[in-house]
Design goal:
The structure is a single chain. By secondary structure, the protein is an alpha/beta fold. The protein is built from 17 helices and 21 strands. The protein has an eleven-stranded mixed sheet, sandwiched between helices. Strands 12-13-17-14-15-16 form a six-stranded mixed sheet, sandwiched between helices. The chain has a two-stranded antiparallel sheet with strand order 18-19. The chain is elongated, with a radius of gyration of 26 Å.
Length: about 500
């Protein structure tokens, strides 16, 4: 109903007028709902972080620090929600809950008598007045890079939306990134009511030294009053900023460095954020939520620093979003990755091929089309990357991260980037040295299709893959090994094999 009214309003009224009407409606609705719930947001202490990238990581680190100090929290992030360390059931994985959900969240904080509510906040939530008047103790800013321009239209509008967290809620402390390109803009709107962090020597919380490891880092943070070093399993220079923001917010809350050091060390893997996956392939496999040009670039920059072999990346982009960022994502991938597999993420109602084409355009502009592969099926793209990877290489699967669903053509389907499966579609190839390739079990494929065990589309794909394999092997002198090598896959025959009968 609300969406229908909004569409009618936008159609009948000039843009500025319709925006004013929508804002008035949203503000009024928020005030009414807050009042009906007894304004719980004003009765609890709130810590909030906004920015383009790093929100989830920063607020998750802060959560661990506060817990290490002996205090209790409710945490709300894109990656999940928890209360006093326990996951909250029914997590919708939205960055900011709905207005009603938020009221319930604040009321829960009151009922459980937690010390702080920690919120990851988006520009959309701020612009659409989803956040009620609240007791905002500390507001933190990570960074601002191109994203959501389908909604905000310009970076200026995007920045103004983020700025609302620091100007509209009367936060006691505002902590912003001194190294970010939008620092001066934020600073001039805060009238000296801010503290800063970063490598800049003038920063209130200075990143003095960063030591990077393959699966972690050490960060030395200095203020006028103290200096200490934290160790974290989070790798990458960009995570040094996320960790430092969390430490800075903790320091203004009066938390001692000892608890900060403990809390930072306590944070283990955040699902879908630099998440390493165990495997038996002799390669490094990582799943990450990176879905912006800056996020992709920083992720791949890290990968090249910590990987001796090649870096292969599988990624796409969501539909109904900023089209201008697609070529930029292609630029970032082409700059660092050795092989790029452009695939579907969640197209929503937008033609998926258009999204991939935008990314591929950027790769082409960088002169790296020969390193790029357009594979629509995400599972197939991941499988191909894994098959092409050699021992010592790194495969990165980016974009969806923690998400357990994808919206394809307007329908939510279950999905998990860190669990992959293969299906046997009946057809087999038999090769005898000197006798070419024989295709067998086509009759089983036909029978399975007729019985409804597999779809016609899967049957067609099985035939297409089979024909491509036969053609490739034939073209390479009837040698499967030579053909696979041409595809970047090296086969080594096992030695000293012992066959054990199945009980």
């Amino acid at each position: 109903m609300k969406q229908q009214l909004a569409k009618i309003t936008r159609k009948l009224l000039p843009k500025k007028v319709s925006q004013a009407v929508e804002n008035t409606y949203r503000k009024s609705r928020l005030m009414v709902l807050s009042s009906l719930h007894g304004n719980p947001a004003k009765k609890v202490k709130v810590l909030a972080i906004t920015g383009t990238n790093g929100k989830t990581t920063s607020i998750s680190v802060l959560n661990e620090i506060i817990k290490a100090s002996g205090q209790t929290t409710i945490l709300s992030t894109t990656a999940g929600r928890e209360i006093t360390g326990e996951k909250i059931a029914g997590d919708s994985c939205q960055t900011v809950p709905s207005t009603n959900e938020l009221q319930d969240l604040f009321q829960l904080a009151i009922d459980k008598q937690v010390d702080y509510v920690l919120l990851e906040t988006t520009s959309h939530a701020l612009d659409q007045h989803k956040l009620p008047a609240m007791n905002l103790v500390v507001a933190g800013f990570t960074n601002l890079t191109q994203e959501h321009l389908d909604y905000h239209h310009t970076m200026q509008e995007y920045a103004d939306a983020k700025l609302k967290l620091f100007t509209d809620f009367g936060s006691h402390f505002n902590i912003i990134n001194a190294d970010d390109q939008w620092f001066d803009y934020f600073k001039q709107h805060l009238d000296d009511n801010y503290l800063s962090y970063g490598t800049n020597p003038q920063a209130d919380f200075q990143i003095k030294k960063v030591k990077l490891y393959k699966k972690g880092s050490e960060i030395t943070i200095a203020t006028t009053q103290t200096e200490f070093t934290v160790s974290t399993p989070l790798a990458g220079r960009f995570n040094a900023y996320n960790v430092t923001l969390a430490c800075s917010m903790a320091l203004v809350l009066g938390i001692e460095p000892e608890a900060i050091i403990e809390g930072v060390a306590n944070l283990q893997t955040i699902k879908g954020r630099l998440e390493w996956l165990d495997n038996t392939l002799g390669i490094d496999v990582m799943v990450d939520y990176a879905h912006t040009p800056d996020g992709i670039e920083k992720l791949l920059e890290l990968a090249t620093e910590i990987t001796k072999g090649r870096v292969l990346i599988v990624f796409g982009s969501a539909g109904e979003r900023d089209l201008g960022k697609l070529p930029l994502m292609g630029h970032a991938a082409a700059k660092y990755a050795d092989q790029i597999f452009v695939t579907d993420e969640e197209n929503r109602s937008e033609p998926a091929e258009n999204i991939r084409a935008g990314i591929l355009q950027g790769i082409q502009e960088m002169g790296k089309s020969h390193n790029a592969f357009d594979i629509a099926d995400r599972g197939q793209a991941i499988e191909t990357a894994l098959r092409r990877a050699k021992p010592g290489d790194m495969v990165i699967v980016a974009g969806l991260g923690h998400q357990n669903y994808r919206n394809m053509n307007g329908v939510d389907i279950e999905w998990n980037d860190d669990v992959w499966t293969t299906r046997d579609l009946y057809v087999d190839l038999i090769w005898n040295n000197g006798n070419g390739v024989e295709v067998v079990d086509i009759d089983e494929l036909a029978a399975a299709t007729s019985a409804g065990l597999i779809s016609a589309e899967d049957a067609e794909r099985a035939i297409e893959v089979t024909l491509a394999a036969v053609e490739g092997i034939t073209r390479h002198n009837d040698s499967p090994a030579q053909w696979l090598k041409s595809q970047g896959i090296t086969i080594d025959w096992a030695k000293n094999v012992t066959l054990v009968p199945v009980p």
